[in-house]
């Protein structure tokens, strides 16, 4: 029996995702964003071992920007995301991560050089060129041959999601991690609460959602690490505006 290379299977899945996205409702960025006129390409250095492992699923990690920016508004390195000069952000993409059973592929290496053209279309999904570059080098290189393909998949997944009004959710009495999951599922038919990871910081504020997918990019139950806070854990959402 002929084995289809993982990169070809991934490309076919990308094509299927793109076709499905044509009939999916568009999802807008939560607040506002301006794409910068010029984007530099950062140099990324691996800080861990290479792990070339078969991919068994994916996680789309999306961060709640108001919480991230709470103490970073005056930091130069986070000026684009947090200063307000280039817009205001709600949910932003932290990264699309492959997984492999109890481990994860990383730092797989690529002969394709990352370019400003690869980064620019994504600067309203992830408002940091350094973050985007790192996600490609660390994670994307284990999923696709070209950075453009990796970022295309990320955009397709992002555009297929709808976001609850987190300002309104933040004001709900008795807010819990389970409430956050339920509001996301209410906005996204086809998702189930067990596929929505909720990461709270040590003080109970929402930091990130981790959306779990199988190899075909269909929602699947998260493992314990990605699931995060249990449903009954009290939660808070910093509005930041």
Short description:
The chain is α+β, with helices and mostly antiparallel strands and 241 residues long. The protein is built from 9 helices and 4 strands; from the N terminus they run αβααβαααααββα.
What would your notes on this structure say?
The chain has 241 residues and is an alpha+beta fold. The chain has one domain (6-21, 48-227): Alpha-Beta Complex (Ribonuclease Rh, Chain A). It has nine helices and four strands; from the N terminus they run αβααβαααααββα. It has helices at residues 6-21, 65-69, 79-82, 116-119, 129-138, 147-159, 166-170, 177-187, 224-227, and strands at 57-64, 91-99, 196-200, 206-214. Residues 18-30 have low confidence and may be disordered.
Q: What would CATH call the homologous superfamily?
A: Ribonuclease T2-like
Mean pLDDT equals 88
CA distance, first residue to last residue: 58 Å
The structural domain count equals 1
Output the number of helix runs.
Answer: 9
CA radius of gyration: 18 Å
In one word, what is the shape? globular
Quaternary organisation of the protein chains: single chain
Strand content: 5-15%
Uncertain regions spanning at least 5 consecutive residues: 18-30
Helical fraction equals 25-40%
Strand order in the largest sheet: 2-1-4-3
**Helix-strand sequence:** HEHHEHHHHHEEH
- Please give the largest β-sheet: 4 strands, antiparallel
């Amino acid at each position: 029996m002929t084995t289809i290379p993982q990169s070809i299977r991934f490309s076919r899945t990308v094509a299927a995702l793109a076709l499905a996205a044509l009939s999916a409702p568009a999802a807008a960025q939560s607040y506002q964003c301006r794409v910068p006129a010029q984007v530099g390409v950062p140099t990324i250095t691996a800080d861990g071992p290479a792990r070339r492992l078969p991919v068994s699923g994916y996680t789309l990690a999306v961060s709640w920007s108001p919480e991230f920016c709470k103490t970073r508004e005056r930091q130069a390195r986070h000026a684009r995301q947090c200063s307000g000069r280039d817009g205001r952000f709600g949910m932003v993409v932290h990264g699309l991560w492959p997984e492999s059973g109890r481990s994860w592929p990383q730092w797989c290496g690529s002969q394709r050089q990352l370019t400003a053209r690869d980064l620019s279309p994504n600067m309203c999904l992830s408002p940091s060129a350094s973050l985007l570059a790192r996600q490609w080098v660390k994670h994307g290189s284990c999923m696709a041959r070209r950075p453009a393909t990796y970022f295309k998949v990320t955009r397709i997944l992002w555009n297929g999601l709808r976001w609850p009004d987190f300002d309104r959710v933040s004001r709900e009495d008795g807010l819990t991690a389970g409430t956050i999951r339920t509001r996301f599922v209410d906005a996204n038919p086809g998702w189930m609460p067990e596929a929505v990871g909720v990461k709270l910081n040590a003080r109970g504020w929402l930091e990130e959602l981790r959306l779990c997918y199988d190899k075909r990019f269909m929602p699947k139950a998260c493992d314990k690490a990605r699931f995060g806070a249990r449903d009954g854990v009290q939660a808070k959402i910093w509005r930041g505006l």
